[in-house]
Amino acid sequence: MRILALLLVKTKYDMRNLWLALFTLLGTIINAQDLKARAKEIQEEGIELYRSEMASWYGTDVLKANYDKMENVVGYFSYIDGGVPKCIFFSKNNKVLATVAFPANYNPRDAKLDLVERDFTTRELDYFTIRQSANEKVKTDTIFKHYNNTSMNLIPIITKDKIKKVYAVTGPSVDNIVVFGNDYLISFNDKNEVKNVEKLHKGIIIQNMKDEKVEHTISGLHSHVLENWQTITPTDICTLMLYYKFTNWEEYFIVSKDFVSMWRNKTNNLVIMNEKDFKKLTEMIEKSEKNNSNKN
User: Fold this and answer.
1) Please, which of 44, 102, 165, 254 could form a disulfide with 261 given CB 3.0 to 4.6 Å?
2) At 12, is the pLDDT very low, low, confident or very high (cuts 50, 70, 90)?
3) What is the mean pLDDT of residues 133-137?
4) Rounded to 5 degrees, what are φ and ψ at 8?
């Protein structure tokens, strides 16, 4: 953490030198391919979580504006159907009351609303089942913590390999803050039964969207200490993408004893480095800055 903080100070929040040195260094790191594959997996899942949450955020707005029987809606979930984000609203009788499908820009005016009541599709039934099971788990298992001015959102995921999981993510219910942590991964077996629950962060991390002491903050960071989650998590990426337009954090860093994860919001690009390789990166930047200073 100290090394990264010093790096941010030395570069005066100008991250161009960092990314230039980063991609130069990656070509010389022997184990870069393994970390690159891991980064790709986390990045893709984080983006899927984001797309699902965006459908949920705006799907509710679309439904409220066009449906006058909201009292019949008892829950909802979102998922990606053939590349299209959809938000499904259901009744207490486990019937689909409405489906809201979104284009890539998530503009509510472009959303397609279907108010035909119907049964779940086979795929939707799996999403519904694991989502409901996760909801009961959150209510009854003491591993889950609940904090004032927050709410816990459930995001079901079924991978191409038919791995079923639900991420429980804590979001703020007040303005001007971003919440990381207090998030969990609930894994399921083929019968849609909970087989494991794990914390993704040790606790809750609350950060202000804007730093009053800094006129224009474009970077942020926090640390990870749990042994199983030393790198950035898919939920971290989801949160960063959801709140990017409010924070303007162009880069964000996750630091642990073994790794430094670097997320670039402008390009939705993730790089994960070993801590030792990151030290090499800082040395490259310091050397480059020193040479430039001597030339001037």
Assistant:
1) 254
2) very low
3) 97
4) -65, -40
> Which one-letter amino acid corresponds to residue 132?
Q
Q: What are the phi and psi torsion angles at 209 (to 5°)? A: -65, -35
Domain ranges of the chain: 1-30+214-296, 54-119, 122-208
Q: Per DSSP, what are the bridge partners of residue 289?
A: none
The tens digit of pLDDT for each residue in 192-227 reads 999 999 999 999 999 998 766 655 667 889 999 999
Please tell me whether the overall predicted TM-score, pTM, comes out greater than 0.85 for this model: yes
Q: What is the CA radius of gyration of the chain?
A: 21
What is residue 280's predicted lDDT score, i.e. its pLDDT? Answer: 75
Q: Which residue in this structure is represented by tokens 């086979």? A: 122
